[in-house]
Amino acid sequence: MHPSAPRDNDSWDDDVSREIARSAPGRSSSGFYAGAPEPASRIGSRAGEPAEEDEDEEFDEEIPVVPVRRQLSVAVAGFAGLLGIGLILGAQTSGPDARLSYAIVVFGVQLLYILAFTMAIRPPASGTVAGVCVAAAAAADYLAVTRESAGILPLLTVAAIGYLLAVVGQQLRSEDRLRFRDSLSGTLLIVVGVVSFAQLIVLTRKPVGTQAVLVCLTACAVAVLASHLIDAVFPKPRIAPQVPRGATGIIVGAMLGTLAAAVLGSVLVLPFTPAKGAVLGFIVAGIAELVDLAVNYSEAGRRMAGSPPTFWVARHMQGPLGAFALALPAAYVMTVFVLT
After folding, report:
1. Where is the sequence biased in composition, kind Acidic residues (predicted)?
2. Backbone angles phi, psi at 243, to 5 degrees
3. How far apart, in whole angstroms, are the C-alpha atoms of residue 323 and residue 256?
4. What are the pLDDT digits (tens) for 253-280?
5. For residue range 306-329, what is the model confidence (pLDDT) as tens digits?
6. CA distances (Å), 184 to each of 83, 126, 167, 171, 304, in order?
7. Of 228, 199, 227, nearest in space to 213 by CA
8. What are the φ/ψ torsions at residue 36 (nearest 5 degrees)?
9. How far apart (Å, rounded) are the C-alpha atoms in residues 227 and 244?
């Protein structure tokens, strides 16, 4: 066959090449031939529309928005203010011969803490845990008042022993042992928070401790009080749909707590200065706000999990009590290592 002759019988003419190209695996969107993964959107469209409709239905489900109850926010703010005033006045009126009265005030606050957190967290063997915490609170207060040298080491010992006794009490019944591991952190929070209030008595026995208690408790009370009052008026932007708190109140509350501590630092005598007061207030107010917000998140989690609600008074006392209790260790550390 000459080169110029027609190639009617050539198996590789243009028509056959096009047929081979049609039957070959097509290019993927990534620029490579078959074997490269296709985008999820194209795979879904090939698999059929029902899968996309199911995904759309899942994302279209609206998250229920918990409304902010203004009267409740004002009530929680009032409780935080009264709690701070009571602890501050008790610290200012205590002295070498009048520490017992302040210990009684602190013990009353500890009982409120035990009531609120035991009813909210509901650890296994709640009665045993509550009894151990009452005994730990009494022992911590007694040691804080009667020991010759004021220090935090006896309180740490009481907290460790109380936690061990609470854990042992949760092992007595088989139904309590089933939830033992899940409740370790909750039990620790209750015991440590109760013993933490005894640090107020220890601080009043230090040279600048009473002034430090004034600055720290004022910052904590102002922060929690202002945040809840702002939530009653302007609870926006919402932290989460399930949490009835606004970011504005939390941020402004922490700033006002820091400002109040700085003002007190400018009024009090040395070693207090506006800068030291601001640093002390910033740390304490920040911790208090975070703890208060964490309580709201935990309550929202229990509500979404379908847990039965606790007694409403105990439930709403949780935030301010936890804020004060867990901010006190930072106040003690700052007092010992910064002010003395």
Report:
1. 50-62
2. -110, 115
3. 16
4. 999 999 999 999 999 888 889 999 999 9
5. 776 677 788 889 999 999 999 999
6. 28, 13, 8, 12, 22
7. 199
8. -75, 140
9. 12
d(CA 319, CA 312): 12
Residue 268 lies in a domain: yes
pLDDT tens digits, one per residue of 183-192: 888 999 999 9
Residue 131: give the domain boundaries: 70-339
* Phi and psi at residue 66, to the nearest 5°: -80, 120
Output the six-digit token pair for 217. 């408790």
Contact 266, 274 (CB under 8 A): yes
Number of domains within the chain: 1
Q: Tell me the two tokens of residue 207.
A: 């040279």
55 lies in some domain: no
Q: pLDDT (tens digit, 9 = 90+) per residue, 83-137?
A: 999 999 999 888 777 788 899 999 999 999 999 999 988 888 899 999 999 999 9
Alpha-carbon distance values, 133 to 51, 110, 241 (Å):
54, 9, 35
